[in-house]
Specification:
homodimer, Elongation Factor Tu (Ef-tu), domain 3, 22 strands, 20% helix
């Protein structure tokens, strides 16, 4: 595959020098930033996440900061999840929808103060969206991008590593809660979160000049635990049933179709964007659902850049939105976004570049 | 530099198979699509654009289609350029701004019918933006992405190539005007446009299954003229003074700062987004301006992923937003976005990774 051309249109994170020194070999672009991929040994990187601890430059999870007198109101307007009980120091996973109830992002919201929030975003321009709504509704808010860059530490030993750096208080931090603190003079926020199901933390660096320093603090503290560089893992996140908005979703996908209905509160205020559409969809039932796919064959055959069509008894029922070799299951697995009338247990045919491949539909997560 | 990882989150254009067959070696991601870069011989690709004719997969210029009863009204709301005299078949270059007058995109608008427009966009989520405004204002429009993918043919011989395919009528097409037609049964729109100053056309493919076929039609027709694969050229666009929104601009940049004031009509309707801010900026004068930089030294030293700081008499005055070796000028050239009090003719210092480098400020374009 082709290599990436540098440009000021794209931005490296404060950890990029450290990541390059680790031997970055593949990557992607996400929110117009560099998302590291592999460091040359994808399978070893996978097992490190599953069995030990891995550290990831996830600076691509850019922060949209909303502050000012109307900040709490705008945060709720943008979120079809009830924020009324959200406390300072708490985070929440938010499906963000447009007026039609279509998913446009799924940030983690962090409440830093009664009038200050961060949205730690997936890959779309939430700045444009939030500024548009604020401008149209005449809200008194400031929307900016603070100097904040997350670094994820993930895996069963992640808590031990983070506790060895910050202290044992981190062991009692609840999921998505965070604390603002510092380490060796570097201001950070420490949150229990991360895009894997192996457990861990995200350290939000609050001084972009200290990326190398923070990277090395974690690398050194993690050495006794076998830490090494990695990145959000497609095999692990697929096995674990995590959703990638923009990858697993299309221009019509609502939260109910991709197992995110539990994060939608239908009784949020009527001025919440998309809530009228979401109430209607909840009542009528979504037309599609997301299931797992176990593909026949014993040779790794990951998805390329394009979704692949799924057929059931000769009828087109939807798309395979990702596909990857599962090291733990020793088979190719993927996600189906398909007609809700076709259920788990059925066998389907996927039109791949190599020809038609059979697959079994299963409930998610796989593991 | 690292190589790109395939993912369904990113999308290839219909020309991607053909582009890969041509030997794509570098590229980028733009609007979550693959933007081809070089085919292994950057200098030869540059001279082909300057002296002959080059063909580019610019499917990344994704189309935001706005149709319906309020389409014309929404198009004007989104555009601080007067569209009242825009005719069907005409295109216009549009600086698109947010409520604060900050540039968020600079599409080419194509008027296909009184109630149907395409915005052929630069790298930001104009879908989110347009849908947000339509939703907030309750406009009766449909906003979608049509099956349309531009392919650019650029260079002094481009008109001859396009005329040999479509007929001599193309020679009388005015800049940014277009005609809907077909070639060998493939529906296309042919527009005089393209992101270079070497002249040429963009062919908007309207059937994504025919990418290979259209690529090969142009490749074969262009063979006698010396056509070959290329991509939007950083050296050429810099020499020619073209702006890359997102690369040459930041979160505060308004059109007046980057020589786009001529495309802002201050008497557009009051409900046009950003017009109040733009009128104020026009009255007060912008705080920064964009000038060219001629750097000392005779070794190519392109910009990497980060802007570089510019100093004048020891004072920080702004950023170098791009820098590239000019094959025609035999020196490194770039753009400065700096304090308006420092003018062309002055000498500045740029803080580069290699150390401080002197440069002369000049008016744009270079050539």
């Amino acid at each position: 595959m082709f290599s990436i051309l540098p440009s000021a249109r794209l931005r490296p994170s404060p950890f990029f020098d450290a990541v390059q020194a680790e031997g970055l070999s593949t990557g992607s672009i996400y929110n117009r930033m560099i998302l590291p991929g592999s460091f040359g040994a994808p399978e070893a990187e996978y097992w490190r996440l599953i069995n030990r601890v891995s550290m990831w430059d996830v600076g691509v999870e850019r922060q949209v900061q909303i502050s000012g007198p109307d900040a709490a109101r705008l945060a709720q307007i943008l979120s079809p999840r009830d924020l009324s009980k959200c406390k300072i120091g708490q985070g929440k996973y938010i499906p963000m929808c447009n007026h039609a109830g279509v998913l446009i992002n799924d940030p983690i919201l962090l409440k830093l103060a009664e009038d200050k929030f961060w949205f730690s975003i997936a890959d779309s321009d939430v700045w444009l969206w939030a500024r548009s709504i604020a401008g149209e509704r005449g809200l008194d808010v400031d929307i900016s991008e603070p100097d904040v860059s997350p670094l994820a530490v993930q895996g069963p030993l992640a808590e031990d590593v983070i506790a060895s750096i910050f202290g044992d208080w981190v062991r009692s931090v609840k999921y998505f809660w965070f604390r603002e603190t510092e380490i060796e003079g570097i201001p950070v926020a420490v949150q229990r979160s991360g895009w894997s199901k192996q457990g861990g933390f995200e350290i939000y660096l609050r001084d972009g000049t200290k990326g190398d320093q923070l990277w090395n603090i974690i690398k050194e503290a993690g050495a006794p635990y076998g830490i090494g560089p990695g990145s959000p893992s497609t095999p692990e996140r697929t096995e674990s049933g995590l959703v990638s908005v923009g990858g697993d979703t299309d221009e019509q996908t609502n939260p109910f179709e991709v197992r995110l209905g539990q994060y939608v509160d239908l009784d949020v205020p009527d001025d919440t964007i998309g809530i009228h559409a979401l109430r209607r969809i909840a009542k009528e039932g979504p037309k599609r659902h997301q299931l797992g796919l176990k593909l026949e064959g014993d040779v790794p055959a990951p998805l390329g850049f394009s979704r692949e069509k799924i057929f059931h008894n000769g009828r087109l029922i939807g798309d395979m939105t990702n596909c990857v070799w599962s090291y733990r299951m020793s088979q190719n697995i993927g996600y189906a976004l398909i007609d809700r009338t076709v259920a788990a247990g059925e066998t389907v045919e996927i039109m791949r570049a190599s020809g038609s491949v059979s697959a079994e539909l299963v409930e998610l997560p796989f593991l």
